[in-house]
């Protein structure tokens, strides 16, 4: 495959995307280092030969299954355009898939929803380049998830503040997001759109508005937005709560129920092994309950071990069974995982072993931060780096101290030095007599008392300087709201849509470019694919 043209060099008016270290949980890190955790993970292949072996094993497992996996799941994919073409090529050529996924998030959720998707695209491209086997990236949209508290909220940065946009809770709780009404989110959308400012790509906001329309469900709106932005990049989105998916995975879920005591024992043993190695299991053990949920028109409930499911109830996997179930219905060569997912894959492989099915392979996703031009100008103006802003007070305090008038700083320093010298001389003088005129502790107490008052004076000077430096304080607030909103990494909190509206598809270009560099670090060559703008026809 021919390599894509290089991305344009970032101008002052363009965002800068910076890769950040991949946060591996303890067990995954120890496995990567070949430590005691290694047996709990499928090792990530290194280089083309190992990936070819991995791909061959997956293809062999799915050979001769009758109706193809893509045909069975076609209603849940509902793929179109470039995504449909790539899906068909992989299905007809006995190809394989690279998956990633997420539960629904309001207006597409945080940045990492999209970082994971771009990581999967980059990995699929690289595997196909290395093996010549058609490989399609697939987004597993977990619309069966029932966590509305997470699905109904998102955050945006607005002039130095972080706004939390939160949907009204549904009248009936506990249902999967595919069946949970979205409600009226028009006011929340207007708040989201207002933070986009002078949007260079207002079409992005149009796509959000069209997806999150009245009458939709939480899961349906999420899937619609994902498809609008990812399908032009050749990535199909699987609605994992669709009846076609539930039917395809039902045989494995019935087996997981029938062998629930064996699975339960395997999980307890793995959890204890994790603790013995110094790692706390990511997913807490719940006694007496299986890893299978039953859902219908009411609340989604976990089935007890030994209980028989209602024949009419839909069955859904819990978080530990989900990678195993996905691996059973899709020819998945690898799942692109975030840190929390990497942690619980150490437990999921125990489930796979207990059910005597193939273990899923987890590959760490790309992680990064988007530095928009107005934030970059702040960093440049005050000579700040990313790490300088991790602490909510350190950067501002340092910059404010530097702005205290030189004469005041010098006088305070002189006062402190003079205090120390005078206290030392007084302490020596009173100690000359026999017995001493006063206890040395009395002099130390006076020095401490005056020093305390002097420190209070210094803090008052800093506070007064800070009030005078309102522009500085505002600039630091703007940068922190963008880079560390609510003291958390940007990718875990901020919604991508306002940033994407401001900068358009070139922002996805830059993110995809960094994701490809991340794939390079896994020992695969960079994928020879077009940029996001080219794959989307240069439009959005």
Q: Could you walk me through the main structural features you see in this protein, from its secondary elements to its overall organization?
A:
The protein is α/β, with parallel strands linked by helices. The protein has 3 domains: 16-249 and 319-372 and 489-523, no CATH class; 251-315, no CATH class; 391-482, no CATH class. It has helices spanning 26-32, 47-62, 69-72, 74-77, 81-92, 111-131, 148-151, 186-194, 203-211, 218-230, 243-258, 260-276, 322-329, 339-355, 373-381, 394-403, 406-430, 440-468, 470-483, 490-493, 497-503, 505-520, 532-535, and strands at 16-19, 96-102, 135-141, 153-158, 161-166, 237-239, 289-295, 301-304, 314-317, 332-337, 362-364, 368-371. The strands form 4 sheets. A 5-stranded parallel sheet has the order 6-3-2-10-11. β2, α6 (111-131) and β3 (135-141) form a beta-alpha-beta unit. α9 packs antiparallel against α21 (497-503). It is elongated.
Indicate the topology.
Blueprint (H helix, E strand, L loop, with lengths): L15 E4 L6 H7 L14 H16 L6 H4 L1 H4 L3 H12 L3 E7 L8 H21 L3 E7 L6 H4 L1 E6 L2 E6 L19 H9 L8 H9 L6 H13 L6 E3 L3 H16 L1 H17 L12 E7 L5 E4 L9 E4 L4 H8 L2 E6 L1 H17 L6 E3 L3 E4 L1 H9 L12 H10 L2 H25 L9 H29 L1 H14 L6 H4 L3 H7 L1 H16 L11 H4 L5
Parallel strand pairs: 2-3, 2-10, 3-6, 10-11
Antiparallel strand pairs: 1-12, 4-5, 7-8, 7-9
Short description:
The chain is an alpha/beta fold and 540 residues long. It has 23 helices and twelve strands.
Number of strands: 12
Structure annotation, total helices: 23
Domain tally: 3
Biggest sheet architecture: 5 strands, parallel
Distance between the termini: 25 Å
Give Rg in angstroms.
28 Å
Low-confidence stretches: 1-11
Coarse shape: elongated
Strand percentage: 5-15%
- Average pLDDT, all residues: 87
Helix vs. strand class: alpha/beta
Percentage of residues assigned to helices: 40-55%
**Strand order across the biggest sheet?**
6-3-2-10-11
């Amino acid at each position: 495959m021919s390599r894509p043209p290089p991305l344009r060099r970032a101008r002052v008016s363009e965002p800068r995307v910076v890769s950040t270290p991949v946060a591996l949980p303890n067990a995954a890190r120890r496995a990567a280092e070949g430590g005691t955790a290694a047996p709990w993970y499928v090792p990530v292949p290194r280089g083309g030969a190992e990936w070819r072996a991995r791909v061959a094993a997956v293809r062999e497992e799915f050979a001769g299954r009758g109706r193809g996996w893509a045909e069975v799941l076609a209603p849940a994919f509902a793929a179109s355009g470039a995504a449909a073409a790539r899906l068909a090529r992989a299905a007809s050529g006995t190809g394989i898939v690279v998956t990633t996924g997420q539960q629904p998030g309001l207006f597409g959720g945080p940045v990492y929803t999209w970082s994971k998707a771009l990581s999967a695209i980059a990995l699929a491209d690289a595997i196909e380049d290395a093996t010549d086997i058609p490989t399609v990236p697939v987004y597993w949209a977990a619309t069966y998830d029932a966590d509305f508290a997470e699905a109904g909220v998102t955050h945006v940065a607005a002039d130095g503040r972080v706004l939390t946009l939160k949907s009204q809770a549904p009248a009936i709780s506990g249902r999967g997001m595919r069946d949970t009404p979205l409600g009226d989110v028009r006011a929340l959308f207007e708040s989201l759109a207002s933070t986009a400012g002078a949007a260079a790509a207002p079409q992005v906001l149009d796509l959000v508005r069209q997806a999150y329309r009245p009458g939709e469900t939480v899961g349906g709106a999420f899937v619609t937005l994902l498809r609008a932005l990812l399908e032009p990049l050749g990535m199909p989105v699987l609605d994992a709560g669709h009846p076609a998916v539930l039917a395809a995975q039902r045989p494995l879920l019935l087996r997981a129920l029938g062998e629930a005591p064996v699975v339960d024992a395997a999980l307890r043993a793995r959890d204890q092994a994790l603790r013995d190695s110094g790692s706390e299991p990511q997913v807490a053990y719940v006694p007496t309950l299986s890893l299978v949920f039953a859902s219908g028109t009411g609340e989604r409930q976990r089935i007890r071990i030994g209980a028989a499911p209602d024949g009419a109830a839909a069955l859904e996997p819990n978080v530990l069974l989900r990678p195993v179930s996905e691996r059973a219905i899709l020819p998945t060569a690898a799942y692109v995982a975030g840190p929390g997912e990497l942690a619980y894959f150490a437990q999921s492989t125990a489930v796979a072993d207990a059910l005597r099915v193939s273990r899923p392979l987890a590959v760490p996703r790309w992680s990064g931060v988007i530095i928009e031009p107005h934030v970059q100008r702040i960093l440049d103006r005050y000579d700040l780096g990313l790490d300088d802003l991790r602490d909510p007070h350190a950067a501002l305090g340092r910059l404010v101290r530097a702005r205290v008038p030189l004469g005041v700083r010098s006088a305070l320093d002189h006062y402190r030095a003079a205090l120390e010298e005078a206290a030392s001389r007084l302490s020596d003088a009173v100690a000359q007599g026999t017995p001493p005129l006063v206890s040395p502790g009395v002099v130390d107490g006076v020095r401490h008392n005056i020093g305390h008052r002097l420190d209070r004076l210094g803090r008052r000077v800093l506070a007064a300087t800070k009030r005078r430096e309102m522009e500085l304080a505002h600039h630091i607030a703007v940068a922190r709201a963008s880079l560390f909103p609510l003291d958390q990494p940007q990718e875990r909190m901020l919604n991508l849509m306002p940033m994407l509206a401001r900068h358009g598809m070139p922002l996805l270009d830059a993110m995809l470019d960094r994701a490809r560099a991340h794939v390079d670090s896994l020992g695969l060559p960079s994928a020879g694919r077009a940029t996001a703008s080219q794959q989307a026809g240069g439009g959005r």
